[in-house]
Amino acid sequence: MYVCIGGSALYNLIMTLLIIVSILIVIATMMQPQKQQDALNALSGGAVFSGQTKKRGFEAFMEKVTAVLLVLFFVFAIILAYMSTK
């Protein structure tokens, strides 16, 4: 399925985790609520005067999940880059 460098089981594990996290990032991004009206307000300058509200509920949860997944993605990618140079 993927290239094994030096037969390292740890490399294979991290590669598998990176693939899983990548798929979860796509799913989490697709599940976030659409912000078409917010984007329109931002382009027209209306967002400045609309009283920015704090995100709550599902939207806040999905934002946190996406942030955690992105951090995991970059950590795994850096680890794999380091392991592939050794």
UniProtKB/TrEMBL annotation:
<keyword id="KW-1133">Transmembrane helix</keyword>
<protein>
    <recommendedName>
        <fullName>Protein-export membrane protein SecG</fullName>
    </recommendedName>
</protein>
<keyword id="KW-0653">Protein transport</keyword>
<dbReference type="GO" id="GO:0065002">
    <property type="term" value="P:intracellular protein transmembrane transport"/>
</dbReference>
<keyword id="KW-0812">Transmembrane</keyword>
<comment type="function">
    <text>Involved in protein export. Participates in an early event of protein translocation.</text>
</comment>
<dbReference type="GO" id="GO:0009306">
    <property type="term" value="P:protein secretion"/>
</dbReference>
<comment type="similarity">
    <text>Belongs to the SecG family.</text>
</comment>
<keyword id="KW-1003">Cell membrane</keyword>
<dbReference type="InterPro" id="IPR004692">
    <property type="entry name" value="SecG"/>
</dbReference>
<keyword id="KW-0813">Transport</keyword>
<feature type="transmembrane region" description="Helical">
    <location>
        <begin position="12"/>
        <end position="31"/>
    </location>
</feature>
<dbReference type="GO" id="GO:0043952">
    <property type="term" value="P:protein transport by the Sec complex"/>
</dbReference>
<keyword id="KW-0472">Membrane</keyword>
<keyword id="KW-0811">Translocation</keyword>
<feature type="transmembrane region" description="Helical">
    <location>
        <begin position="65"/>
        <end position="83"/>
    </location>
</feature>
<dbReference type="Pfam" id="PF03840">
    <property type="entry name" value="SecG"/>
</dbReference>
<dbReference type="GO" id="GO:0015450">
    <property type="term" value="F:protein-transporting ATPase activity"/>
</dbReference>
<dbReference type="GO" id="GO:0005886">
    <property type="term" value="C:plasma membrane"/>
</dbReference>
